[in-house]
Predict the structure of VOC family protein.
Amino acid sequence: MLHHVELWVESLEKALPSFTWLFGRLGYTPFQEWEHGRSWRCGQTYIVIEESPAALRVPYDRMRPGLNHLAFHADDVDAMVEEAGAHGWRLMFADRHPHAGGPAHYAAYLENEQGFEVELVGGVRA
């Protein structure tokens, strides 16, 4: 079982609106808060967003080696896609949505202003 994931962001202030909406919408609840970061918990797993003073000051790029994206189960993919733009997310692969992952894979791929990608997986639809 995954214990936690920690994402370092360039700007906590810029990252908070999109991630706060996303994690809340997915059922995560606020867990910890400190000057340079926040975390949200769901069950025993938590996710951290931190503007670490130790981070290299280079923009995040999901195309570099390392984390490409996080994928979450979502019961209401379509509703979340409708809401996402108002919270700093844009739909990726719109021309293939909701089957960008293949014909039997119902999902939305979203990217926020900092370039972080999330996949909202809804499962198989008829």
